[in-house]
Amino acid sequence: MDHTKFTLDENEMPKKWYNILADMGPMDPPLNPATNEPIKPEELEPLFAKELIKQEMSTKRYLDIPEEVLDIYKLWRPSPLYRAHRLEKVLDTPAKIYYKHEGVSPAGSHKPNTSIAQTYYNMKEGTERITTETGAGQWGSALSLACNYFDIECKVYMVRSSFEQKPYRKSLINLWGASVIPSPSQDTQFGRKILEDFPDTSGSLGIAISEAVEDAALHDNTKYALGSVLNHVMLHQTVIGLEAQKQFEMAEDYPDVVIGCCGGGSNLAGVSFPFIKDKIDGKHDPKIIAVEPSACPTLNSGEFKYDYGDMAKMTPLLKMYTLGYDFIPPAIHAGGLRYHGCSPLVSKLVADGMMDATTYHQVEVFEAGVTFARSEGIAAAPESNHAIKCAIDEALKCKESGEEKTILFNLSGHGHFDMFSYDKYFKGELSNE
Amino acid sequence: MDHTKFTLDENEMPKKWYNILADMGPMDPPLNPATNEPIKPEELEPLFAKELIKQEMSTKRYLDIPEEVLDIYKLWRPSPLYRAHRLEKVLDTPAKIYYKHEGVSPAGSHKPNTSIAQTYYNMKEGTERITTETGAGQWGSALSLACNYFDIECKVYMVRSSFEQKPYRKSLINLWGASVIPSPSQDTQFGRKILEDFPDTSGSLGIAISEAVEDAALHDNTKYALGSVLNHVMLHQTVIGLEAQKQFEMAEDYPDVVIGCCGGGSNLAGVSFPFIKDKIDGKHDPKIIAVEPSACPTLNSGEFKYDYGDMAKMTPLLKMYTLGYDFIPPAIHAGGLRYHGCSPLVSKLVADGMMDATTYHQVEVFEAGVTFARSEGIAAAPESNHAIKCAIDEALKCKESGEEKTILFNLSGHGHFDMFSYDKYFKGELSNE
User: Fold this and answer.
1) Whether the Cβ atoms of residue A321 and residue A359 lie closer than 8 Å to each other
2) Which residue range is the domain that position B242 belongs to?
3) Domains contained in chain B, number
4) Residue B55 falls within a domain, yes or no?
5) How far apart are CA A85 and CA A98, in angstroms?
6) How far is C-alpha B14 from the geometric centre of its chain's CA atoms?
7) Residue among A108, A176, A426 minimizing CB distance to B373
8) Is residue A347 part of a domain?
9) What CATH number did the domain enclosing B354 receive?
10) Among A334, A375, B197, B323, which is most exposed with the fewest C-beta within 10 angstroms?
């Protein structure tokens, strides 16, 4: 059998992130929600470290990864690139399927790639406390891990439906020293208002963001951190695709299709942007696919327009695909994909035809996850199962056409804290909302 | 900073297991429980595949790992050897601490090293169904994963206290297609008897083994698999230590101390036997330490004598340290270490002074686990926290003495399915039973 996994030594890790802004046309700027005017960098300073604001707007093509960030990355990076021999065999496909396994990080997903970076810059600038929201809990755990390393207090507002489904995500967040409460909460003005109006709400990322932003704005030495959507987050995640490119060189192969699940867009951006650079440079022409849940089809059915990132309209207006800032998606089991908006970078790439988007219902998504677990061994996160489902479909198309395509998908995280959802799938209790 | 982790390419994986029986004096043979006479290989055939019985008794020094087993190992092996820079810094010790991370397997522990091998040989001999017991759930998941690969039906009797504490271990076992019930159960004669006499029992490995053995004995084409204790299990686990030796060559270092937690003994044997060979050969003289919970101190306080491996006295009598075949340990949170006996090989090495043994209470063990999670990032299994606690103590001794010892411990598994126990620790609800 050919190689099963392509591993790089930690010294072969990329030393720079790739900034796709350098290779895209001018972007519509974020707008101040109070004035509707393009936001000035200093207006973002109450929420973000200055260096992150600089990165948000930078058009420099490659940005150095600080030594201290690299040192922490080394705890799990470079992540392995797998050739899914066993999945290929089960599907009986001529396609070659590869996946990048981001579930090997201590927090269990790709999220620490940016939480470590964001927290590092905050530490450098004296931040003492960081607030955030979390959907599935992957981001909340990743930020807790990062704040632990830089001795920063951390408070996580966790979307209530996830909070209740995943008590042990909460335990993991606590283990690294952060505190976590269900959102909407009594701890913010906005949370209290929502609870009054909709006492039974399952919550949403839009609400939780409002709470975290309000908390950061009202407390001294407190900043806010976002786990997706923004340019600097996409930037930090490109370490995934940059590593994958080195690993494809080892494999003497190159992907025809690159797939990522898409909520705010960060893992998709991470795996695909370096390959999109090859596309822009005219070197290769891979098809890039964003996979969304049918229950929250932002790129597939949303409008491409300016919208708020949160429900309380406190964040800057971003030009992006959106289902509306007050959209509350059904409580599907891929909590990380329940966001009304999407990264402006990913949105523009879709609008420009550089990226495709597709949707799946959650039952077929879990079915794909079970096929994957029984072939490749790994219990994947419900979010990642979306990418798996799409990779399987692409491979089955090859089976029909006889094409020997090379397919890459990002396995954004493991599902060890999502077994409740697998149980529901096996009991036939998952709906296709 | 020096290297954080030493990774081998999958082609550098050891191709043979190391059989320590070749380098130890003659062992007291297992006895037939009916006759008290040394058991004949064919008397074990109702329970085990012939090839495994051969391995159990073999005195050949190196045994080939079959190609198909290697191919599955490649899904996660070679596992990384970490240098615990951050833990060293927190402890402010001159010692160098390394750990082998066996939690990277799909099942989350070292157990698949033997489950894959055992299931492979069973498949070769036509076994259609395998029964087993599981304590913490690590072994049950590992066997489920393995049976999935070789298309063998699998039934797991899970010690009731673990079954109740860890619902999601059960989900993982189901995900790979096995069935799992709490032990004692209504499914066996012995289980029903225990439930009649002790309806509130938290169960024990000794009871669960009896149930699995009874089930295997009474069903056609069904064999039994044990996740620890037996010689062939220790054999399969030596891939851990053999890899570690290659990785220490990369690190240009060699351990002065090798540590593993010890229930039945398999992860300790796996990491240490290749180093004990160096001891026997007079090449090196590392100290080997078996770490047990105070609640179940088999090597520390048990008697070295012939005893049954299970409560119903169905298994062969083994010469080992034992707390008595009917010992039911308190329901501590390291379910994998709740066994009355221990591997005859490990027992003899302790009796011969080749290995030391020590104990810790569970509160200090979890405290060590939290220190580890906050320095190295990884949420470890409660069992592994015993090894971590011992490594920390050894490093702190070096701090006092100024010695720059090299310490290796085996991180036998992650704790993603044990967060309930961490919650109890943080709430101050863990007793030191």
Assistant:
1) no
2) 5-12+66-108+232-426
3) 1
4) no
5) 9
6) 20
7) A176
8) yes
9) 3.40.50.1100
10) B197
Structural tokens at position A350: 């879709």
Q: Are B419 and A172 in contact (CB under 8 A)?
A: yes
Reported as a single tens digit per residue, the pLDDT across B289-329 is 999 999 999 999 999 999 999 989 999 999 999 999 999 88
In terms of pTM, does the model score above 0.90?
yes
**Integer Cα distance of A204 and A202 in angstroms:** 7
> Measured between alpha carbons, how far is A28 from A35 in angstroms, rounded to an integer?
16
Q: Which residues pair with A291 in a beta bridge?
A: A261, A358
Residues from chain B that touch A167, judged by Cβ atoms under 8 A, are 419
Helices and strands (DSSP H and E) totals, chain A: 17, 15
Mean pLDDT by 10 residues, chain A (433 residues): 91 98 94 95 96 97 98 98 98 98 98 98 98 94 98 97 90 97 97 96 92 96 97 98 98 98 98 98 98 96 96 94 92 85 98 98 97 98 98 98 98 96 94 74
Look at residue B57 and tell me if it is in a domain.
Answer: no
* A104·B104 Cβ contact <8 A: yes
**Confidence (pLDDT) at A136:** 86
Cis peptide before A94 (omega within 30 of 0): no
Backbone angles phi, psi at B6, to 5 degrees: -105, 115
CA A249 to each of CA A18, A150, A236, A259, B256: distance values in angstroms, whole numbers, following the listed order: 18, 35, 22, 19, 40
With an 8 Å Cβ cutoff, is A34 touching chain B?
no
ipTM of the complex: 0.97
Count of A–B CB contacts within 8 Å?
Answer: 100
- Single-letter amino acid, residue B412: S
Give the CA distances from residue A241 to residues A17, A271, B306, B342, in Å, rounded to whole numbers and listed in that order.
10, 4, 58, 47
A146 located within any domain: no
Considering only CA atoms, which of B236, B342, B249, B367 is closest in space to residue B292? B342
Measured between CB atoms, which of A4, A74, A172 is closest to B75?
A: A4
Rg (CA), chain B: 20
Handedness of CA B210, B215, B220, B222 (dihedral sign): negative
Of B136, B78, B92, B141, the C-alpha closest to B112 is B141
